[in-house]
TrEMBL record:
Protein name (record): Histidine ammonia-lyase
Organism this protein belongs to: Bacillus aerolatus
Pathway annotation: Amino-acid degradation; L-histidine degradation into L-glutamate; N-formimidoyl-L-glutamate from L-histidine: step 1/3
Class of enzymatic activity (EC top level): lyase
EC number in record: 4.3.1.3
InterPro entries: Aromatic_Lyase, Fumarase/histidase_N, HutH, L-Aspartase-like, Phe/His_NH3-lyase_AS
UniProt cross-references to SUPFAM superfamilies, sorted A to Z: L-aspartase-like
Pfam families in alphabetical order: Lyase_aromatic (PF00221)
Covalent cross-link site, 5-imidazolinone (Ala-Gly): A142-G144
Family under the similarity heading: Belongs to the PAL/histidase family.
Keywords: Cytoplasm, Histidine metabolism, Lyase
UniProt PTM comment: Contains an active site 4-methylidene-imidazol-5-one (MIO), which is formed autocatalytically by cyclization and dehydration of residues Ala-Ser-Gly.
Amino acid sequence: MVITLDGNTLTLEEIGQILYEEASVEIRKESWRKVEESRAVIEKLMAEGNVIYGVNTGFGKFSDTLISPEDVEKLQINLIRSHACATGEAFPESVGRVMLLLRANALAKGYSGVREETLQLLVDCLNNGIHPVIPSQGSLGASGDLAPLAHLALVLVGEGHAIYKGEKMTGAEALKRAGLQPIRLQAKEGLALINGTQAMTAVGVISYLEAQDLADLADGVAAMTLEGLQGIIDAFMPESHQVRPYPEQQQVAGRILSYVEGSQLTTTQGDIRVQDAYSLRCIPQVHGAVQQVLNYVREKLLIEINSATDNPLIFSDSGKVISGGNFHGQPIAFAMDFLGIAVAEVASISERRIERLVNPQLNDLPAFLSPNPGLESGLMIIQYVAASLVSENKTLAHPSSVDSIPSSANQEDHVSMGTTAARHAYDIVQNTRRVLAIEAICSAQAADIRGTEKLSPFSKNLHKRIRASVPVITEDRIFSEDIENLAGAIKKEMWSKELQAVTIGKQ
């Protein structure tokens, strides 16, 4: 599978194919023409002696410092080395891979003034599985993701470090093993490689893709919990959702009804009780609101991944070179804060359903779903873990975008903190996956106690998937392993895609 990049049409689904299905990429022919024309503008203006920011001037507060022609190349490599000062744990390989992709796509738009060979090396690194080692901390999210992207650029010039075929090595060695040659940066190219929002956007795309999967899966897990607690299905009937016409709320309610269709465990108003607790009754309202946020985040990411976000921008049609602020990450900072808040709520309501499954004061099941209550604690402490993760999410969900610290001697006096927002959203997604795994473990155990033969066809399938990673609980054991095994299976297999297919044509 080959994905063609032109800087304008990349989709989130295609990024998923490049991430998870090892699709390769190529640059569209028309884009090569635009890249060539953009580069020609830079070379023409330099030959004429024009002053261009970042080409023959310093950077940031040094923008008024002129650079002599003989030092133009040295300026670019100095930029990469001096800005490669990110710190902390390295991003996952997947983030480095998406950063390569997004930077290549942005340059393919033809507004950055790079040479063809520079863009081609980005593509070659991506297609050969050379993933730069990029420390995760140190970006302010305005002037772009300078520090993280500088670590990416180091590999292109044969410096820094990369992961190649599972092994960490120098950038030079990784290029050599893949049969590639490092580039020697020319005027503007260093700045074009590091001035952009590709770190925050890469983390954001991965967080979104995983969050969307979890939000969809949460509907299925909640449906099985509804059965385990003999929940009332009246709250999911279409009439009440038609009079509050949020499409996402209606869709979630429709999915839940489809998921429990054929169940012998669900009830109606008055059978056992008149109303369920909010964590059951309000699933469409809460999960639906999460889907609204995901739609917003998706829209912003689609724009950002197909944007020119470096500075200055080269307009070959007019010959203009414009210094602006497209590197400012505010749109993604807001989106990532919003994403983190929404996914934290997926975990929050899930933990409340976990409590209802294990608390003997809230159901008629054995206390803490224990096979021998008292002698064996069962799933008592697993709820503690969920509560801890939910609490941690609350601190991570504090908006990063409300903060700003001036930099570069106050020249860059307002920044987005968008990369911090994206990193926090990513961590919230990982925590939430574990909370959903815990709910699934408890829900599956409740189903075994009630009788799996009474489950809906959908829930029988979901129960089977859970039991492939987590055997039925017959005695106390190390439940940490169950949580990690199930969370790992959910992440690897993207269960929600199969689960949603069950409801096609039923909504």
